[in-house]
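[job 4417] fold queue: 2 targets
>>> target A
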Amino acid sequence: MKTKIVIEISERWLKVVVEKKISVEPLINQDPATIIAALNSVLKQNRPGKDTEVCVVLSRNKITVRRVDLPSQDTKELEQMLGFYLIRQIPYHKEDICWSYQNLGFDGISNSHLILAVALKSVFHNVVSSFGPVNLFPESILMSSQGLVHYVSEALKDKSPVNASYMILDIDSNYSDLILVHKQKLASSVVIAQGFDQLKSEQEKERFTVELKQAIAALNNEVPEAKPEKIFLTGAASSLLVLIEGIVAMGPNLKAQYVSTKEYESFASSNLKGISLSAILGFNYHVAKEDIKFIVPELQIKKEIKVKVQQLIILGISLVFILVMLGVIGLTRLAQQQSYAALLKTKVQDQAKDSKELEEIINKLKVAKQYTASADSAASYLYELSQLCPSSIMITSFNWEWKKALSFRGYALQIPDILGFANTLSRSETFKGAQNRYTRRRKIKDKDVVDFEIVVK
């Protein structure tokens, strides 16, 4: 949730409300350095979060206010007409001012009633110069008079009914603001030069009396349908209640009533006297959508730059985070693969030890298979050879290799016996292709025999 901060910079005081907590710092002058130091002091005391909603209140004595009636209901036409009105009626160059307005409504006949507020751009210089260094960028710049309306509405809530029309007199340290409220909206406003500091003098009190009567009469003439019966006093007017009651009783015949809130009463108990906090408290309670808001291009640009920088920082942090996470994932995968490979290698080594005996058994089985297979075994060949070998042939040696050539040696008394035996073997299925490789005569115990060797391919 955003922390709401409302700030007003007057000639002598910096007034700040942070979530209903009031802080006031004295200002020696209006230099930005002085204002920055005061703002830093307030922020250190209150320590708002990073997510803030900042509203700046512009004092009424720095604003020119006019009630304007224009013959149109169209917003674009009204703004064009106000542009011409500014050129003709306001004694400043249009390039040197900031202006805003509030549409009070159509009278049902021909005119729209507007409140026009005009301030010199130089007035906003301190705001532009002072708020950037403390990292505060106002959401809006508001007029103090409308804050008084919100303040009185809050102070009278659940206490006493409020008529459709009434006046508010707010006394600050160096000026007073008299406003007329009609149909719960600011209908008009007049600045009176005397404030709390000036009203300590009897001569200034007399001037104040004259100016207050004139201001009340002017507001009544400006909005004749209003007909207020009460005037609510705010700010430093509590100590001047008797004086003001005497003034309004003699002339305008208004009933005066001082109104306050618990936040203001808590501040009033301190040693600081003669300071009005009504406007900033009013905006702290409520900011209406239709309230007059000044747009300062420099502040808008700085705010947009801040937002863009924050977005770039978030984007950069996000990219770095993603890259780090991808690197961590990659390193984790690599470590897992290396660990798995090492585990497999260990298992292979363990299995190699266990399988050594098995391999020896398999080799023995292979050798045994050579001699025991039904078709190609040595036993099978020997059996077939014994069936085909006649009694005239003596086999002396048998040479057999697995799935390779087969040969055997022996002797006979006559060569024809050998040739006949070779022919018999070649005609058999087992020894098909048998050939006599050689014959050779020799003697055995005074007998002549013929050696031979038969090969089966």
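>>> target B
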Amino acid sequence: MIFKNIHLPSALSLVALSFVLNSCSDSEVNASDIPEITQAIYVVPESYTHEPYKKYATAENFYVNYKEKIRIWGIYAINGTEIPTEKSTEYYLTHKWNIDGEETSGSYVFCSFDKAGIHKVTFETVDHLGDTIVSHANIYVNTPTSVSLQSPADGYNQIDGKSEDGVELSWKISGIDPWETSTCVLFASHNNYDVWTSPQGETDCNESVLFIGDFDLKKDKDNKEIDHKTDNSTMYWGIRATIQNELGHIEYAYSEIFKFSTKLKNDGSAIIEIPISCMYNQFPEKSKLSGAFISSVGDTLASFSGKKGNTVIRETLAAQSNVKIVVCDNGRTEFGCDSTTVDLAPSTKNIADTLYLLDKVQPNMVPYATEISTDDPIKFFVLDNGSGVNVSKNVAIMNKDTLKTKFEDNILSIPNTCKKECKLYISAEDYARNKAPEVYWKIEVNKKETSIKGPFAVTEGSSNEL
């Protein structure tokens, strides 16, 4: 950066200079008696509050990340020694910033750039003699770097595990700016948890690689021999890009972890595995899953029944397209049914996306009895044949008082605190966050007998009375 050096007297120097000129006409004033002022631009993190020259260096070019919050700071030096910002005001009349054509004032400005590229910064100062000091800087804002998959498709399962031709892996890297260079490293492992500790070699980021090897595992994680007629092997891989700018600063960009699988060594049939999850099911052992695999023309290829919730259904079928899998929960009926469709290529093992069965039914609530002894608690059946009643969400309010409740064997017990006529509001919710209908009940006490009437709809006006 080029600084304009100006001989600028301080307030005391101006007084001394005036005295010399007025009283000693034959004296000479040396340039060395007048302090020399320079200025510089610093770019620091927004949160940095100390004087920037104590930790950072000035430069003509700064490199920051997209939307990174920074502080652009103008610093003055007298005779080559930086001075604190709060003590610099006596050395100038005005100063201003121009950032990408927009002007602002202040010793520093806060900003972040939501547009990648080169941003121009000018810091302009007018001193007490009317001279102008101008400093320039460029802020290089990095484009966010990303690595996306091109081929093979994630989850591709038709790789020959013994082929000498290998498999071509290709990806696309975006966000490399003109002032940056990049190199890529391929990582791969049969264990998806070990991918980023298993480098396979460095390559050009803009070129694909031919990955050659024996992709069929010999033994599983339990050291048992793998039968490749019924089980394939999966390779997990990813790309790490190393990006370096002109100052040598380095950042890394990682792809997602992708995978491909080998073909089965069988007669051409396909294996399908489909994970099934009954969402928020507190009682998976009470589920009774049943379903079928149906061909594209409506024929039942296979069926199953009596499976517990949160399981994996596995079936071997002839290779074909548009196989529909239908699953229902006949035990916890509120989970209902759902389905998905898959294509089965020859000699492949296919793991479908998890099929989620959802409980969308509200809990149901009815009085255990409508006539009770006044000394007995008020009881309600709260029934839910899905995810189950969430006991922590049971609330009973009578005449604006919240009552302590007890829930056991689907029965909610509430102390009878009513003296004559009361409104009882009960809220209940299941683990799938379905709420019971918003209603209230009329409690009428006649000496030793209490009656429960309702339910009655809670209107906007009546809800304030509860």
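[job 4417] complete. Note on B: The helical segments are 11-23.
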